[in-house]
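Researcher: Please translate sequence to structure tokens.
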Amino acid sequence: MSADFHSWVAAHQARFEEVLRGLLPRADVAPQRLHEAMRYAVLDGGKRVRPLLAFAAGELAGADTARVDIAAAAVELIHAYSLVHDDMPCMDDDVLRRGKPTCHVQYDEATALLVGDSLQTLAFQLLAEHHLNDDAARQLEMLKLLAAASGSRGMAGGQAIDLASVGKALTLPELEFMHIHKTGALIRAAILLGAHCGANLTDTQMSRLDHFGKLIGLAFQVVDDVLDCEADTATLGKTAGKDADNDKPTYVSLLGIHGARDMAQRLHREALETLAEFGAAAQRLRELADFIVLRKF
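Model: Translation complete:
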């Protein structure tokens, strides 16, 4: 990965942080405690991988950055809400997220529940109230896309399968099915929403971007499973070894460390092949694929 790519990432991360600060309700606006907790859950943490994917896809489609800001924010708010809820005692019961106490620990469970609810609805408010595509039907499709990626056929459904799979030995197709929904759906949505903010791509091109997102979303989860075994809590910013402690099926438990690493590399190669037709326009997406798969290997 080039110095130019690292500069691009750093610039987008810093600017996007300010975008999020401006879009979230101010902490001094009633109800203050809820708004403070929303800001706590979203700001000052995370690599912003999903927004970066949205920006890269937006560049490919020649999108106005201000439009992609809103689409990227909507995805990140959904992601942040899912983390708040996932960390609660009724789900994964974790105390650390992004290197700081989880939302329900810092505040309380009722507040954390409302934080997740509020971040989710704010995401759709942003998509509805900003002009993101000159074609109203295309913008409506963006709302539908994020809703599907977030709900029972997407992220929430994947989490339900995850909770139901504790202590069970899943096959590789079953594990992939779970993570295509739990992790992959929102990654795919980020890429497609970023692309929708630009010039209308052909259905074939959008399908290729979607397939790239599917592959890199799976690779993201495989790498996460490896890091959960190999990295420490300080490096991860969340409790290391939690999946093994909770007897959750992972790519490492199914394939072993070396098998999981090989799978991540294969998914990485296939993802890059999917972008071949886009040429130089997809360079940032390629670099992000490298970043996702090679981040700690």
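Researcher: Any highlights?
Model: The first strand starts at residue 96 and ends at 97.
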